[in-house]
Predict the 3D structure of the following.
Amino acid sequence: MPEFDPARTAVVNVHWQHEVVSPEGTFGPFFAEQVVRHRVASYVARVVAATRSRGGLVVFTRTVHRPGYPDLIANTPFFAMVAERQAFLSGTPQVQIIDELAPEPQDVVVHQVRLSGFFGTELDTVLRGRGVETLLFTGVATNLAVTDTVFDAINLGYRTVIVSDACTAATDQAHQASLETLGQLCEVVSTDDVVRRLSG
């Protein structure tokens, strides 16, 4: 497989915020245990560090809603739960990226209100402005926001790569099933492989 050109590569980190991956977060009971058990954040940190060190772009997508939730359409049980539990509210600590992966000044943080990090956001504009052609994906959950954002990336014409050990879902089965599906459309690689190929 071809190497990654760091100048044209970005790592897109989906939903690494307390509300999703910390035990006290609204959605932590679904995902926090898996994140800890598989040491997923440590793999993400390696991918992020390798991307930064080689001059690639680091992007974080996070869900943030305005007070009163005027930007929320509760057309699924998941979105209804957001409003019921007052989750992802702007200005609260829960919407912040976890300390282990804290963004640096040169990183890009995109705010989303739907499943995909591309839907209704500036993400595509930012990436094209930087000349990015390859996207490496990490995040939670593999079968939800990660998959939805990946599908949009594919439709938009990006070379799309899933970092398998830097993603997780509520269960191992859901994670593996998603990787099998995504593997039909894009590359599925390990953190070790990403670091090696970024280093050239």
Q: What stands out?
A: The two ends are 12 Å apart (CA to CA). Strands lie at 9-14, 57-63, 108-112, 134-140, 159-168, 187-189. The chain has a mean pLDDT of 97.
